[in-house]
Amino acid sequence: MYEMLPEELLKIKSLKKYYADRSPFGKLRGYLKAVDDVSFVINKDQVFALVGESGSGKSTIANLILRLIEPTSGEIYFKGKNIFTFKKNQLMEYRKAVQIIFQDPFASLNPRMRIIDILSEPFKIHKIVEKERIESKISQMLNMVGMSTDILNKYPHEFSGGQRQRICIARALTLSPELLVADEPLSALDVSIQAQILNLFQKIRQEVQISFLFISHDLKIVKYFSDVVAVMCRGKIVEMAKSEDIFCSPLHPYTKLLISSAPELRIVREKERKHDYIERKNIAPDFLNQIDLSLGCVFRTRCLYKVDICQQVEPPLREVSGRILACHNDLFT
Amino acid sequence: MKQILLDVQNLSFYLKLEKSKVYLGSNITFNLKEREVFGLVGESGCGKTLTALSVVRILPQNIYPEGKIIFKDKELLSLSEEQIRHFRGRHISMIFQEPMTSLNPVMTIGMQIAEPLMTHLGLSKKDALSRAQELLEAVQIPSSKERLKNYPHQLSGGMRQRVMIAMAIACNPSLLIADEPTTALDVTIQAEILNLLQHLRLTNNMSVLFITHDLSLISEQADRVAVMYAGRIIELAETEDLFNNPQHPYTKGLLASLPSKKGIKLTPIQGIVPPIAAVPKGCKFFDRCSDKSKNCEEIEPDLLEIYNNHYVRCMRCFQKSY
């Protein structure tokens, strides 16, 4: 048996996005490091998941990849080319290859456009299909996401959340992208609808070659759907590994905390609840202030396993048994 | 045996239009025992929140309740506005999903916590404030004395929810209604808030009516669970029993929708929740059910006991068990 070498699709190299924090009079007080020195690679046909709490920089990375915002420093290579040097034509090509699905399907469809206009707009902008063939292309797309063509003359408000998300997916797929950025695509949906959309994603993966950057805070879904997981904490990746490794044996204390906090389908008896309470009590409850933590580990204020060095030196990313980890404590290696 | 604290009997609520009534929920019957956590689960729009709002009688305008809600021998729905005020915040209190919109932005959190103490228990402002500080400590807010003077915008989401909880437990209520208390929070903060709630429940002898859409969460938190669909309770059982032996096709479908192991295809429920105008005449789940019979279309089944304390609203379940 031989293994196919994975082909790199998107490569991110020490990407940074800082926002200046200024006083009301314009004096610089410091920087909010939304994304701080992040590097990773998404291979062809891979589902790469970003997880972390709100404010950890997941969506900022999505916006940087789409070039909706410019980075403070760092590079993103798409098939070997730096996307931040793209000129207008190249950017058009790039945007054809990289598409996005947003969290809120109610806010991401223009309420004044009919579905047919929404779905044919990508074709009109990129002019890849002759006018006569647009309609058959659209019906092909709708078929793929499990909707019929009689919806074409309707407006977005006539659909439920799940149906709208299907339309958003159809729109993202029209240009046969190679990378689909899905920023919390399921969070606004009910459980039964979530399962429908997850099945749809699986079906798409079987039918066309496509990579996903899958952003989610729901660990159950990430565990189910992704191949590689990067855990983010305050703008940094603290652990990155194959999905099985992360969920079966998390190494970083933050990953452990995230996974143990996520509710699971299980029965907890009264005694255990009380026990749980005592165990979790010593976690420092809050970190509201994101600004200025230049020294030391980003997670140190809440870490149960911190050692002295965590206060002063930021842990470098290192490779530990086939995964990437940023933690000083040798307990985990 | 534990005593029954809250008894909801045949509760319905309807939207009053000019010439007609549109029922948003009907025949909701359940009870809450002392010191129990009772979970209400269901997808958005199934009537969980309206049920809770009926108990404290703060339903939106034009929506009216029917039926009986008995709380410690008092029938809440027949009380006057003046009388019900005596219960709200004193014996029954509620925490909401979005802590930012449910706190007053122009009032210090100290005063907001002190307010129910002054109105219900007649404490002086000074005593109420010092009690408020104790409450902040009870919900584990550090440097509680300084925090009393803070305004809600100075706190993070998790902290605000803690303040909400402090307000809710201020007068030692016997029933706490928690309506999606952690949905707006991160998982790590969620775990902390839930732990805190369980701890306070045990130390203060409270019952909790816990409302959520998250099945995993309810499986960890509740003693008994009722599953709602289209304004009805369709299944009610003890938590362990419900998740081990779900009976109703909807409950089964919900559980099958949860992603479990990688590679196993999910079997979601077909279709979508019908809009109010298109709800089926018989069983409300008829159009999406994978196990329906002809009768289901015409007759709506009752919520009946299938075996000890496991209630189901489904004809097929009973046909099979005989």
Could you list some keywords that capture this structure?
heterodimer; A: 333 residues; alpha/beta; eight-stranded mixed beta sheet; four-stranded antiparallel beta sheet; 12 strands; 23% strand; B: 322 residues; 13 helices
Describe what this molecule looks like in 3D.
The complex is a heterodimer of chains A (333) and B (322). Chain A is α/β, with parallel strands linked by helices and 333 residues long. Chain A has a domain at 250-333. Chain A has helices at 58-65, 88-97, 115-126, 131-144, 161-173, 191-207, 219-225, 243-248, 253-261, 270-280, and strands spanning 8-22, 28-43, 47-51, 73-78, 81-82, 98-101, 179-183, 211-215, 228-233, 236-242, 318-320, 323-325. In chain A, strands 6-7-8-3-9-10-12-11 form an eight-stranded mixed sheet, with helices on both faces. Chain A has a four-stranded antiparallel sheet with strand order 2-1-4-5, covered by helices on one side. With 322 residues, chain B is α/β, with parallel strands linked by helices. In chain B, 36% of the residues lie in helices and 24% in strands. Chain B has 13 helices and twelve strands. Chain B starts with a strand and ends with a helix. The mean pLDDT of chain B is 91. Chains A and B meet through α6, α7, α9 and α10 of A and α8, α9, α10 and α11 of B.
SSE layout and pairing:
The complex is a heterodimer of chains A (333) and B (322).
Chain A: E1 8-22, E2 28-43, E3 47-51, H1 58-65, E4 73-78, E5 81-82, H2 88-97, E6 98-101, H3 115-126, H4 131-144, H5 161-173, E7 179-183, H6 191-207, E8 211-215, H7 219-225, E9 228-233, E10 236-242, H8 243-248, H9 253-261, H10 270-280, E11 318-320, E12 323-325
Parallel strand pairs in A: 3-8, 3-9, 6-7, 7-8
Antiparallel strand pairs in A: 1-2, 1-4, 4-5, 9-10, 10-12, 11-12
Helix pairs in contact in A: 3-4, 4-5
Chain B: E1 4-16, E2 21-33, E3 37-41, H1 48-56, E4 63-71, E5 74-75, H2 81-87, E6 92-95, H3 99-102, H4 109-121, H5 125-138, H6 144-147, H7 157-169, E7 175-179, H8 187-204, E8 207-212, H9 215-221, E9 224-229, E10 232-238, H10 239-244, H11 249-257, H12 295-298, E11 304-307, E12 310-312, H13 315-321
Parallel strand pairs in B: 3-8, 3-9, 6-7, 7-8
Antiparallel strand pairs in B: 1-2, 1-4, 4-5, 9-10, 10-12, 11-12
